[in-house]
# Entry
Amino acid sequence: MTELLITCVKKNTQGIIQQVGINGNIFDVKTIAEKIWSRENTYFTIANGIRVRVFALRHPSTNEPYLTTTTNMKLPNNLKYLPKCQ
# Structure
């Protein structure tokens, strides 16, 4: 299993993360979610100098995959604070 670092995000007009940046490349959230669920790769990001794991979940009403750094809906998703990918 490969460990990869997510360093930036691209959001849609509603502020929902649609793509993430890894090693200078851009990937769709759906692609990353599938790689997490298949245990092909694991993903991390750095939040306040601490390495945190990225999880793939499904939205309860739309069933669309999304990425988060916590499985607790009350805690902040650190991916939302990453810089915008260029």
